[in-house]
Design a protein that fits this description.
heterodimer, A: FAD/NAD(P)-binding domain, FAD/NAD(P)-binding domain, five-stranded parallel sheet, about 30% helix, about 25% strand, B: mainly alpha, 6 helices, about 0% strand
Chain lengths: ~425, ~100
């Protein structure tokens, strides 16, 4: 029988202790540290793909919430097609499967000079590289009368979660014959076809449950994403239940009086049963406070890598960044995350960043069996992100019901896949 | 000092032994991984989108070419494949089909 001396035994314990203390994924000795801010499509994908491209990286994801409610498919919740749980994504797989450290805290500042991220509860995270993906924040006051307090009466529901639930509650409680008014902002804003998909799906719900009711979109623009396809579908499906008022016909909302229940344009005053005010937006407040945004309220970046042009070693992806022809969408954010992750991995190894390549694919539902899409492949040309010529575009006009049904099915498939690719 | 070196050594060994093989994040990886948003990580789609990790490379290359020429009916892929050269598409297929 082999005897183990006390000294050897203690030595073994020490070694085992070292493993369990640091953890395998937490073997941070000499690892480069990347801090990712925001657990939406951009941040979650970035954290996951950083670990895929270089498993030895020390990756920390910081998000204030315990889980993430996606904006994509939140309009199906409003229409009663899905539950809130359906659009809720857990961060568990990011930590358990991919070795990302997930921290729940509110980031108050990114200190680019000291290369650290500070949170409201007093924690501090040093980084070699930082990815910022905070989505959008509302530009409170840009629309007269619409501040945060007003959003608790007239929800924007442009960040999914409690706002989605509030708007749904109001639509459910509305008597038949009521008007749901949606105010759509000027460009740029998160999810350009979103207000029109929302109008469609609410109209779908009203047509079945409250047929004397109507959705009115008051628009700050004269055109919008996939407008030809939406208008074609609306004529077929919602002639009585949906009306779109462009800016040229007085659609631009000038002010709201939330307590009085009034939405005003320069020409008219509306007192709808439900008012959904989607206000002008900016980059996430944390990006602005950290000096990453320019006068536009969004963040300029190197189009090849998404590194901020204003703060070195900080990369801004998703709705907060200025990404040329790429729209502010979940798919864009996720695709940008992979470009940024690959660039960071390359640069930390002392290599040159790889070649930019990205996609946006976005489906909209007009009803559960009627889907339309827009797609594009992007490259960097003359220092700007642009669509690859002669590719991309929207679904064909005049397609038959079978085609629209197929795209509706693919919309669900899209959601399942991108959810898994980002958080799974 | 000794303990620190030992800790570092154990850590390094653990990393080398336990970490999955790192993917190189080259141009084709970045281009191909953009497809995963619709088709799932490593092409393992969970829903209505076609999965391609189990398809044969030649078959997949043929499908993509037919989307490009219009020979094969599409809802969206006809618009997407036109954003890539045939060589890029082939390399992306090889990337996905090499994963088991």
């Amino acid at each position: 029988m082999t005897k183990i001396s006390r000294r050897t035994f203690n030595g073994l314990l020490g070694a085992a202790g070292a493993i369990s203390t640091f953890g395998i994924s937490g073997c941070t000795f000499g690892s480069d540290r990347v801090v990712v801010i925001g657990g939406g499509f951009g941040g979650a994908t970035a954290a996951k793909y950083l670990k895929r491209y270089n498993p030895s990286l020390d990756v920390t994801l910081i998000d204030a919430e315990k889980s993430h409610y996606t904006c994509p498919f939140s309009n199906t919740v409003l229409a009663g097609m899905n539950s809130m749980a359906f659009i809720n994504r857990s961060f568990d797989a990011l930590s358990a499967k991919h070795g990302v450290k997930v921290v729940h805290a509110t980031v108050t500042a990114i200190d680019g000079a000291a290369k650290k991220v500070v949170t409201a509860d007093g924690q501090s995270f040093s980084y070699d590289k930082c990815i910022v993906s905070p989505g959008i924040d509302m530009k409170w006051g840009a629309l007269a009368g619409y501040d945060e307090a007003a959003s608790h009466i007239m929800p924007h529901a442009w960040k999914a979660g409690p706002q989605t639930e509030l708007l749904k509650k109001q639509i459910d409680a509305m008597a038949d014959g009521g008007v749901v008014l949606i105010s759509s902002p000027g460009n740029p804003f998160r999810c350009p076809p979103g207000p029109y998909e929302r109008a469609s799906l609410i109209a779908h719900y009203l047509k079945a449950k409250k047929p004397k009711s109507k959705v009115i979109i008051l628009d700050s623009k004269d055109d919008f994403a996939k407008s030809g396809l939406f208008k074609e579908g609306w004529e077929k499906l919602y002639e009585k239940n949906l009306e779109w008022v462009p800016a040229a016909k007085g659609g631009k909302v000038a002010s709201v009086d939330a307590k009085g229940g009034v939405v005003a344009t320069d020409f008219d005053k509306f007192k709808p049963a439900v008012a959904n005010i989607i206000p002008p937006q900016t980059a996430g407040v944390v990006a602005i406070k950290s000096g990453l945004a320019d006068k536009s309220g969004f963040c300029p970046v190197d189009p090849n890598t998404f590194e901020s042009t204003q703060v070195k070693d900080v990369y801004v992806i998703g709705d907060s960044c200025i990404a040329g022809a790429m729209p502010k969408s979940g798919y864009s954010a996720s695709s940008q995350a992979k470009v940024a992750a690959a660039a960071i991995v390359a640069v930390l190894k002392g290599d040159k960043p790889g070649v930019f390549s990205a996609i946006n694919t976005c489906y909209s539902l007009l009803n559960p069996d009627y889907g339309i899409s827009v797609a594009a492949v992007f490259e960097v040309k003359e220092g700007k992100i642009a669509g690859v010529p002669n590719s991309g575009g929207v679904s064909p006009k005049g397609a038959n019901a079978q085609f629209r049904k197929k795209e509706a099915d693919f919309a669900s498939g899209w959601y399942a896949s991108i959810s898994q690719d980002s958080w799974g | 000092m000794k303990k620190r070196l030992l800790t570092a050594g154990v850590c390094l060994a653990a990393t080398l032994l336990m970490a999955p093989a790192a993917q190189s994040a080259d141009a084709i990886t970045v281009a191909a991984d953009a497809c995963a948003g619709c088709h799932g990580t490593d092409g393992r789609s969970l829903g209505a989108m076609p999965a391609f990790h189990e398809k044969k490379p030649a078959e997949l290359k043929q499908i993509l070419r037919e989307y490009k020429t219009g020979k094969r009916e599409a809802t969206i892929m006809d618009r997407i494949v036109k954003g890539y050269s045939d060589e890029q598409l082939d390399a992306m297929v090889d990337y996905y089909t090499a994963k088991k």
